[in-house]
């Protein structure tokens, strides 16, 4: 290349950089896979209005893992079946088999499809291929659910409903920290009543945080989980299985004004403001340890809010409620309900049935 041709090429590149503010607008199969994922796929995924916060965070992690394994390869080499399959096996060993499968799904949607649409590659190199992955349950998620016995469930719910959160408002009691007496009382009331509602309905904690008063029926015996707030995108009507919890909801609506969220951020006076996920999780951990000590339920030292779903699944099973009805009630397909939300260690219902017989 002559000096003149080199200067002309440099001038064109400079004009392109100024026109695009330095962003690369065309990609070839020889460009690095990691750079494309970081510059295009990750940003496109982040800007998508269709993804929920939790889903977006999970997909971002999958793209990060893909970059770690394949980032230094050119796009064409990274997507070769042998290279991609080797990367998936490595991901399965490090992060778990389910994560490796999800990485493949995310790469298909947010990397390969846009590359085909942009004519960078002409087809999906891994379409229809089955990769043999090592079985690795990295999350150590139990095959069966972890629930309470019906007696433990009843004891815990009694304790929650008897909580004297109002004593915080007594001027004679000492308080610490930067929050006012009213804010502390509101925070205590919120976590206790949110947990009581979960114990009586099996709502996920995210569903309870998102619940609004217009989704609670007039006599406080049914709450609605919408498609938008359900983790599985399956809306459902959920009965409140304890009359005392219905009464608790009624009083809460009177005290809070009955607009916006049922459990808004307790640190503010804004009924529409969502309770921060992290702050709520900290309050959950502290409360469950307290219940465990007060009620002698050691399991509550380690389990979290899914314990109520498993417990109610198991109680309903022991009472003869069909699996299809239980699955609909808790927003899962029957197979998932069987595998993850039924505690097969609780045989108290069977023993009771034998005693009655």
Secondary structure blueprint with pairings:
Elements: H1 3-20, H2 33-47, H3 53-70, H4 75-78, H5 81-95, H6 97-117, H7 150-161, H8 181-201, H9 205-210, E1 222-225, E2 236-239, H10 243-256, H11 277-295, H12 306-318, H13 323-330, H14 334-340, H15 348-356
Antiparallel strand pairs: 1-2
- How many helices? The count is 15
CATH class type of the largest domain: Mainly Alpha
Mean pLDDT across the residues is 85
Q: How much of the residues is beta strand, in percent?
A: under 5%
- Structural category is mainly alpha
CATH-level-4 superfamily name of the largest domain: Intergrase catalytic core
Quick synopsis:
This protein has 357 residues and is mainly alpha-helical. The chain is 56% helix and 2% strand. Helix 2 (33-47) packs antiparallel against helix 3 (53-70), helix 3 packs across helix 5 and helix 13 (323-330) crosses helix 14 (334-340).
Written overview of the protein:
- This protein has 357 residues and is mostly helical.
- The protein has two domains: 9-117, Orthogonal Bundle (DNA polymerase, domain 1), CATH 1.10.150; 150-356, hpI Integrase, Chain A.
- It is built from 15 helices and two strands.
- Helix 3 crosses helix 5, helix 3 packs across helix 6 and helix 5 (81-95) packs antiparallel against helix 6.
